[in-house]
Amino acid sequence: MEPATPVQADGPADGTSGWPQSGVTDRAESPHADLSAVGVLPGVSAKRYFELCRERQPVLYSLLRPGRVSAERTARLFADMGQLSTHFESKLEQGRGDSYREAQNKDFMIRAVGFLHLFDLAVPQRGGADRLTVLDSLGGNGTLTRIVRASRRQQDLPFIVTSDVSARMIESAFSQGLPAVRLPLENLIWFDDATFDAIIVAYGTHHIPPANRLQAVGEAFRVLKPGGRIVLQDFEIGCPTTKWYDDVLDRYTTTGHKFDYFTRQEFNDLLVGNGFGDVRVMDVYDPFILRAADPRQARAGLLNYLLTLFALEKLLPAQGEPDEAALARFEAIIRETASFAPGELAGIGGISEFTIAPEGDEYRAEIPRVCLTATGQRPLR
Ligand SMILES: C[S@@+](CC[C@H](N)C(=O)[O-])C[C@H]1O[C@@H](n2cnc3c(N)ncnc32)[C@H](O)[C@@H]1O
Which of 47, 97, 274, 369 could be bridged to 88 by S-S, CB 3.0 to 4.6 A? Predict the structure, then answer.
């Protein structure tokens, strides 16, 4: 499902795009008048974004502080952000984000096991979690929110804000009715100190340049309430999952994929170095799982999902659609790069290789993956 309320791609940065009129158009009365020249989403100025937020996302609006920094600093930040975000913008903008969003919107539960594990580390409470506020700070187009909403009872469901540096990701999330704001983790400029009960920094931490990482986690600390929890997730240097990203994504995407991943010590130091207490570093099982009526559908469905999610265009035949030869080649690559020693992941509930097995009256296709995860708590004082 693409955005229910599409946003015009190249409209002027004054809010006259495909977004509905909010009725808050009188500049003299608007508290956001000086932000009208800052483009935050395609065709949407910061001023217009706040108006839309007030209308469509009043709870998020109540958390935002547009006046925390000057319009000049805001403009500089958004100008700089274009440099950071290209991988997840659209193809025309040299990104591979269209494909990523297509896969995530269609089959968002495929990654539910890992996401829910991270969510439960961030929000361990059962009952009363609906009073909490959580920031998913590399949140893409809101997959975490959609998975949690589909999986948890109302009383276990906090208010989740998706933030991300990518304009297209936030455009997609916001257009689907999710509370979403475009900000980099390093500069959560529109949030006051001590705003959130928990923050999740996951599935993309390697995209933050190493020189920015300590500051980025420091910004997470700033916006957490005392006692608030952080969950930091990425991939460990030397792990087969990291090799998959380095070798397969780098070779078969048009964007390439060379990043600096993490050691356990670095994860520990990023949290301890920013003042977090009760720091723990662990492995979390994070598979891709797809269920279907027969084993062929389960296999093809999961392979096609991964080809789309990661935009592995160089593995596709010339006409674009994956045929059986392309699927077989991709399956061989997965077996070579995304396998673990037998029993290696048993301690965290994982299997060791791509498996298709009966489950009830369906078939379950599963590709193992493991992520490095650290948790910590902002001290109460
Ligand atoms: C692999 S995607 C994951 C998105 C989402 N968490 C998911 O799993 O579907 C990584 C995301 O991190 C975002 N990102 C990269 N650097 C960032 C930064 N410094 N601050 C905020 N978001 C960032 C990208 O724009 C992208 O949407």
Answer: 97
